[in-house]
Amino acid sequence: MEVYLVSRNSLFVLxxxxxxxxxxxxxxxxxxxxxxxxxxxDPSQSGIFAFLGPSxxxxxxxxxxxxxxxxxxxxxxxxxxHVCDGVGVGYRSVxxxxxxxxxxxxxxxxxxxxxxxxxSSCQPVxxxxxxxxxDKETPVEIAxxxxxxxxxxxxxxxxxxxxxxxxxxxxxxxxxxxxxNINMYSIKYSKQYSKLSDVYQSIISL
Length: 206
What we know:
Mean pLDDT: 80
Low-confidence stretches: 1-18
Order of helices and strands: EHEEEHEEEEHHEEHHHEH
Strand content: 25-35%
Helix content: 25-40%
Largest sheet: 9 strands, mixed
Number of helices: 8
Shape: globular
Distance between the termini: 35 Å
Structural class: alpha+beta
């Protein structure tokens, strides 16, 4: 698997995969739920949008598209979430964004050359978006999730978070607090690069 980094100054590729696991293990031991997600900070840094889904769903590609539109990189692959004073917040990753070769080719060299933006390390979660790309031609469909929110979060935990915390009462309680305080959406769209703009417009219009 080829990994392309937004920060070309980061000279690790294969080690990146191991560093992701190490960070997830450390955070999980602190009983903080870790979502399998990529996220971006909006231009005003008022909060973050996070994209969730199984591997190869397009989470990193979606984050990259938002970055191209002026958002700032926040996290990739792992997103710790927590509730602080009744507000669901996410914590910024120290690891860079990774893209597979086809996505890297789509965005081009200019994307990788753009300077990084320093953002606040802890920001409110404006929305969690569960990605459901399809090979069929279909308009973008966004539905707010109001039922089974804890189950959705549980199904999108990073595997190290699940191993470290299990399904004990404390972990379920933490997920329930997050589910109660964070807006969550299911988004269905055609899995084509040309459709990313439609997804972007649909999300920022919420």
